């Protein structure tokens, strides 16, 4: 990814200035405030990025998400990977390489949350792997996958890139899980590998960390993120009640 510095003198502020609430700079701020109330982006964690034309708008790192303002936005040219707007003092999001992986596959918006339900689901899947196959399987999270079926909210998830329609009640939802790393950007290779292995997925869970969700546009990405979080929470409660996630699942 290019490290070319973008404008810091305000000359590119027209890119983030608009009265429209649907403009990416304004929309990201609204999403961050909403996700903060859901507990998805506490402690400056998580992030949101939107692709708009040739540009990618990215919320900054290290800023409390409920306080993010349009002037805090980084703007990158997708084709060159060069920042064309680089706010002074602030740092680009460490999630940026992972957002780019989604955009390179046609996404219009990518959301990263630290949802507790997403984290708990990865822990439950990891524990299942330990019980069923031993420590060798659980130590390689690339082999892990959250699976669930016969849940109505699965209908909120598309069948896959280039496929028409949404998953159905009787379809099995699969969300791959990758190992966590000490630095966010180091997740990129594993995320891309999961995308290749599960080409129909619109999300990747990160073990003991959270989830990345993307969609063709902002509305679809938000819908999918909300649907998945509902499913993750339901899955945790189902496990507590000793209810199986699939017909062949062993609790």
How much of the sequence lies in strands comes to 15-25%
Tally of helical runs: 6
How far from one another are the termini? 43 Å
Label the structural class. Answer: alpha+beta
Uncertain spans? none
- Helix/strand order, N-terminal first: HEEEEHEHHEEHEEH
Radius of gyration: 18 Å
The rough form would be described as: globular
Q: On the 0-100 scale, what is the average pLDDT?
A: 92
Provide the spatial order of strands within the biggest beta sheet: 4-3-2-1-5-9-8-7-6
- Please provide the count of β strands: 9
What share of residues is helical? 25-40%
Biggest sheet record? 9 strands, mixed
Describe the protein in words.
The chain is of the alpha+beta class and 251 residues long. It has helices at residues 24-37, 96-103, 116-133, 135-138, 188-197, 218-240; strands at 47-52, 55-58, 74-77, 82-85, 109-113, 144-149, 172-178, 203-206, 210-215. The chain has a nine-stranded mixed sheet, sandwiched between helices. Helix 3 (116-133) crosses helix 6. It starts with 23 loop residues before the first helix and ends in an 11-residue tail after the last helix. The model has no long low-confidence stretch (mean pLDDT 92).
């Amino acid at each position: 990814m290019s490290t070319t510095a973008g404008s810091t003198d305000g000359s590119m502020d027209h890119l983030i200035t608009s009265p429209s609430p649907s403009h990416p700079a304004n929309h990201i701020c609204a999403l961050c405030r909403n996700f903060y109330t859901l507990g998805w982006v506490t402690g400056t964690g998580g992030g949101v990025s939107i692709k708009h034309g040739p540009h990618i708008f990215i919320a900054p790192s290290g800023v409390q998400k409920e306080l993010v303002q349009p002037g805090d936005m980084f703007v990158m040219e997708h084709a060159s990977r060069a920042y064309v707007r680089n706010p002074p003092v602030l740092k680009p999001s460490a999630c940026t390489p992972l957002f780019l992986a989604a955009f390179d596959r046609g996404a219009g918006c990518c959301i990263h949350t630290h949802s507790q339900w997403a984290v708990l689901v990865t822990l439950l899947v990891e524990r299942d792997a330990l019980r069923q196959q031993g420590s060798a399987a659980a130590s390689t999270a690339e082999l892990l996958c959250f699976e669930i079926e016969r849940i109505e909210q699965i209908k909120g998830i598309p069948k896959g890139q280039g496929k028409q329609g949404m998953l159905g009640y009787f379809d099995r939802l699969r969300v791959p899980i990758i190992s966590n790393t000490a630095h966010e950007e180091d997740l990129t290779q594993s995320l891309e590998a999961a995308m290749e292995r599960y080409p129909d997925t619109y999300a990747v869970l990160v073990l003991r960390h959270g989830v990345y969700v993307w969609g063709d546009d902002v509305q679809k990405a938000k819908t999918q993120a909300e649907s998945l979080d509902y499913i993750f929470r339901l899955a945790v409660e189902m496990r507590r009640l000793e209810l199986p996630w699939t017909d062949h699942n062993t609790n």
